[in-house]
Amino acid sequence: MAIDFVEMDLSLQVGKYEVQKLLGKGATGTVYLAKDSFSGREVALKTIEPEVFRDPEFGTVYRQQFLNEASLAGKLRHPHIVGILDAVVQEDSGYIAMELVTQGDLSKHSKAGALLPVEDVLQIGFKCCGALDYAFKEGIVHRDIKPANIMVAHGTNVKISDFGAAFLRKTQAVQTVSMGSPFYMSPEQIRGESLTYHSDMYSLGVVLYELLTGQRPFTADKMEALIKKITEQPPTPPTKLRTGLPKEIDAILFRAMAKTPAQRYPTWTDFSIELSNLADKMVPAGVIPDSVKYVALKKVPMLSSLPDSELWEVALAGKWSEVPAMKVLVKEDAKGQSFFLVGRGQVKVTRKGRLLNTLDERECFGEMAYIRGGEFPRHATVESVSELLLAEFDPETLAKMSLGAQLHLTRALVRNLVDRLEVANTRMAW
User: Residue 285: its pLDDT value, please?
Assistant: First the structure.
């Protein structure tokens, strides 16, 4: 839920955490701003009250949800999932220490008058697709995707939270329907069927619908009527509810929210690419969406071994630009230390006017300078043959990435360089 900071004078210690501020209080527990007394790191500390576990009607469900979320401590590592850092569950109480995200959640942007730009919503959807794809590959279906469970880090960078419902058994899932909001549940979830990632895909479609229009696709005064609409009726096309929406959005959301899983996108990647392509059409000239950067890097063979979290680090570390044809990018004998990656288009490599090579999208150049460290004269001139999507990576920015990302990137560049040398040796042998 979206909440403001509440100043409090608290002298409370929970485990190794020093409680500093109240962030919010819900029906089942309280969330505090706390500091890890060992590391000094600030965290969001979720605590649960003893009476919650003892609730005669839902105590077992609440406890299972808390245990589910606690069991993920240290396991989900993705830039668009709230990290669960630590957890302790006792007989009648417990706490979970989570990554601190201070900009609230998306529920504040789901009402008319507070809607985000369309291209921002598409970027948010793209990032959620990647996070939920990662979670599913880790064996997790979230089962409770809604605006209040998508936290805002900054801009369009969001983090999915609250995995408490992810592992609920079938009987408990039915109980959850009566406890929480069913507005975002897929038809198969409402029917109590076993769920796959397609259920989360439906729910994300509903979230995007609401963020784009300020309205939920299905509402009713009575539960029976709401369930009938969700399982049987088509939603109103979003373009009829908000002027200025691109016509393509109707087909994208209708497919994500199809009544049966088989009618939805076959993979999260298919869904995310549709969102990315549409976002790319909508941004102003010269603006390159995060999704376009990520997709360009995802296609690069030498980066295929990078985990999703590190690929995002590389994508955001690059200086991306659209370059016209016939522009010199690197000049021989000029000093430099950056390397470049061609996301789209073609470049030619020459030395003293002699053509040495042509490079297409997914290929890089100038990596020797980065690997060697320091500024050295370039060995060749590189010029754009066509319009380019180009990423420049300088050592100073890359040094701010995690050590794992730096190591994987350097290894990838070295392997790529070795492959080129082998090709060159083969040509010389001819």
Answer: 83
Annotated catalytic residue, options 120, 144, 290, 308: 144
Please tell me whether residues 68 and 127 are part of one structural domain.
no
One DSSP character per residue, 372-410 reads H-S-EE-SSEEEESS-EEEEEE-HHHHTTS-HHHHHHHH
In terms of residues, how long is the chain? 430
Domain boundary among 259, 283, 307: 283
Residue with tokens 């020093």: 18
Residues spanned by the domain of 267: 106-283
**Structure tokens that stand for 182 in this block:** 């069913």
pLDDT of 133 over the 70 cut? yes
Residue 351 corresponds to which amino acid? R
Q: For residue 123, what are the contacts with CB-CB under 8 A and spacing of at least 6?
A: 156, 275, 279, 289, 290, 291
Residue 261 lies in a domain: yes
267 in the same domain as 131: yes
pLDDT tens per residue across span 236-266:
999 999 999 999 999 999 999 999 999 999 9
Q: How confident is the model at residue 173 (pLDDT cuts 50, 70, 90)?
A: very low
Q: How many structural domains does the chain have?
A: 3
Beta strands across the sheet bearing 354-360: 328-330, 381-384, 346-351, 354-360
Helix axes 118-137 and 197-213, enclosed angle (nearest 10): 170
What DSSP string runs through 197-260?
HHHHHHHHHHHHHHHHHSS-S---SSHHHHHHHHHHPPPPPGGGTSTT--THHHHHHHHHT-SS
What tokens were used for 135? 């979670």
**Together in a domain, 93 and 165:** no
Beta bridge partners of 84: 98
Query: Phi, psi at residue 240, to the nearest 5°?
Result: -85, -10
Both tokens of 35, joined, read: 């500091």
Angstrom distance (rounded) from CA 391 to CA 423: 25
Give yes or no: 144 in active site.
Answer: yes
The pLDDT assigned to 136 comes to 93
Which of 60, 83, 99 delimits the end of a domain? Answer: 99
- Round to whole Å and give the CA distance between 211 and 116: 7
The model's pTM: 0.88
The SS3 call for residue 336 is: strand
